[in-house]
Amino acid sequence: MAIVYKDTDTAQSDFSDSLGQKYTIENLQYPSTIDSSPEFGYNKVVFFINVQGGGKFAQDKKNSMQLMDVPQSEYENYLAGKSAAESIGEVASIAGVNLTVAQKMKRLSSAIVLYVPNNLRTGYSVNWSDEDFQKEEMYAEIGLEIGKMVSGDQSTALISKTVGAAAARKLNGMDYAQKALKITPGNAKAEQLFKGVNFRDFTFDYQFVPRSEKEAESVMRIIRMFRHHMLPEFKDQANFLYIYPSEFEIRYYKGAKENQYVERHMTCVLTNMIVDYTPNGQFNTFPNGMSTQINMSLTFRELSVTTKETSPMDQIGV
To answer: What does the pLDDT average to over 234-246?
Structure first.
């Protein structure tokens, strides 16, 4: 069901995070009743945006959206990577190559505030694989069987042909030996080996139904804000090297406080964005050309993997 509300609703102009930092959210929130109407249960999701410190957006003094240092509590991942970047710079300087070490991320003083989507889900995935620890025994057994077969000249010729064909095809001769001997290893001794943690992806789906010109302005500003910060920028006029896109910190709030019952996301990037101007199968607009309904789908990927350290038993985690 599409979100609707009255034209007379008044939107907040600012928002304070859990660290007390104030953000401007005017024209970057939907719907305007999100903090005043029980329809949404006073729940909201806030998207904080971190831009690359070395990018033109961060360095442009005319930028109307002021920048601040990323809060220390959300800056630890960057610090871990900075030492590696500095090491690369040191190695490059020794080799006579000039490299600009990645600059500190900057936080926009504007944030996007949206209602919590109906498809809110989070998942965790780790990677395990089957490993057969009886391979060596199997190979020894096959070798023994081959030894029995090569006791005669005819058998020797047969095995030589099999191994030769395998070598010619650059394949594993053991596979041919298994076929020739009609034996194959069982999985009675197979075990699971832990391989790692998978990166998490998650999608937010939104429906925008602007009811006034002001609402239409907010919707388009929100869409363009996401689009702008998911894309990279060229480092210079040569248009050869990219500067990384912006990063997002996503937090869930119940009223003015962060919701401790919804697990956090790691710092993430926006990997896919779909804007549907015809969700009902027909292009309908207001007199000024604004679509009567716009659907937006955002897919994010976390930049780090979850571990016990990021997911504590006794407090909010990821």
So the answer is: 89
Give the pairing of strands 190-197 and 126-132. Answer: antiparallel
Q: Would you list the DSSP string of 18-47?
A: TTS-EEE-TTSEE-GGGGT-GGGTTEEEEE
Structure confidence at residue 43 (pLDDT)? 93
Per-residue 3-state assignment (H helix, E strand, C coil) for 175-222:
HHHHHHHCCCCCCCCEEEEEEEECCCEEEEEEEECCCCHHHHHHHHHH
Q: What is the pLDDT of residues 21-66, one digit of tens each?
A: 889 888 899 998 788 878 888 899 999 999 988 888 887 777 767 8
**For the segment 256-314, what is each residue's pLDDT rounded down to a tens digit?**
899 999 988 999 999 999 999 999 899 988 888 888 999 999 999 999 998 888 888 88
Closest CA to 201 of 305, 302, 303: 302
H or E segment and range at residue 277: none
The closest of 39, 195, 190, 49 to 113, measured between CA atoms, is 49
Between CA 101 and CA 167 the distance in angstroms is 49
pTM: 0.75
CA-CA distance, 100 to 54, in Å (whole number)?
9
Cβ atoms of residues 6 and 211 within 8 Å = yes
Burial 214-237 (b: 16+ CB within 10 A, else e): ebbebbbbbbebbeebbeeeeeee
What is the amino acid identity at position 136? E
